Hints:
The complex is a heterodimer. Chain A is an alpha/beta fold.
Amino acid sequence: MIRMEQVSKRLGGRVVLDGVELKIEPGETFFIVGTSGAGKSVMLKHMIRLLTPDSGRVWIGEDCISEARGWRLEQIRARFGVLFQSGALLAWLSAGDNVGLPLRQRTNDSDADIDRLAAAKLALVGLADAFDKLPAELSGGMRKRVGLARAIITQPEIVLYDEPTSGLDPVTARTIDALIDSLRQSLGITSVVVTHDLHSALAIGTRIAMLDGGQIVAVGTPAEFVRSTNAKVQQFLEAQFITKHGNWEKAVAT
Amino acid sequence: MYAPGVNYFGSRTIITREPEYFAPPVNTYARLGRAVLLLLRNTGRALRMLGEAVANVHYMLSRQNRADLRQQMFVGGIKSLGVITVVALFTGMILALQTGLELRRFGQEVNIGTAVTVVLLREMGPFMTGLIIAASVGSAIAAQMGTMVISEEIAALEIMSINPVRFLVMPRLVALTLMMPFLTIYTDAVGIFGGAIVGSTQLNVSFTAYFDNCTRFAENKDLYVGLFKAMVFGVIIVTVACHQGFGAAEGAVGVGRATRRTVIISFLIILMMGYFITRLFYK
Lengths: 254, 283
């Protein structure tokens, strides 16, 4: 579904990605973890072509998004939904109008149909009552959930999440996890999640990749990831009090 | 069904750009050369954005843009009336006082109506309106666009295949281009009235005599050229504000920088364009 071939990127003279090779299969919930500044968000932005690699290619299915332009790029991007870190909601539109925005702008569907669908998506993310509220009236977690509803209203094949649980309390974070997981199970959506939160990754990820120094130093299923002998991975796990014999397997099972 | 490109017109400007990093210039010539090249490049980008907004004008009454157009006309027009009233009134009063004091030396103070009217219609009306709108509406547009860039809202629009130029720039362009002539007529009217107050209270020129003189030497051409200038100024303000806002980087500092540049650049272009339009119509 998503393939990165020897992707390298320098920003401000610093190597952020250094020959990254990655393949994400359809229907996966793929987590990219790493320390701050490791290049996780930069990697995500390459997948949607908000950044272009200095060298290497990024493929979405059979389409090379890193070389697509204009109309072709728009067609490839239409296969994506993106949840930005801040939610990226338009401040002057209500939650319902934000969710319905892509359909209102790009289709000829009636306003009533769009409102109905937007309300259904808001209900899906547990915000049925928030249709008429402005983003300023919503908490950080609610804004992220509205952003998620907007990301999936166009029925994308792939949803990218940039730090979906950062800054949220643990309960809300687990709610977001459950939503991401339910999208995979019910709609078969391929998800790519950038996060620091290993608890999320171990609970709902099908595979996890660790980015360090511009390269992927470890990739595997949650079980493989936890048992990795890579020093950086072990350091990252220990920092979040996760051990090889911890209760993360229970979390996966549930 | 959702599909990219529905209702889409022409090629499209990419607003979300990669961050730029420049090595420090080796000497003054390199610094100057880079500044010139960046000026040319940014002018080209701004004009391309303007061209695309113009190419999308036929969507201004579409379902997607109608509400925003109405809102922008309200913000750009009605909400600016307060400050315009004060500035226009005092501009007219100053004009009447300055010209009146000089004309009184020759016993011609009765002609201040003509002087105030011609100066306002030809130059000061559109010019003052342009400056006020650049400072109030232009800076607000730049701040809004800049904040949207910083908070990734513009990137989100582009990923949703929503063209930011059509969605954000075009309604503001149409709104301000339409509202500027009306605001200028209002500025002219209030300014002329301000002149009448000064004439009546300080120069012993009655209202009747003042208004009789108002239209004596003023021509329709003065009004039309002034309104044309106002429309051009509206285009300049929106183009500069959106372009500067879209170029904002580095968080709140970048938004502040975009806002400041919008006001300065708009003032300079309005000043220069005002001269060239005058030169074009009055030889």
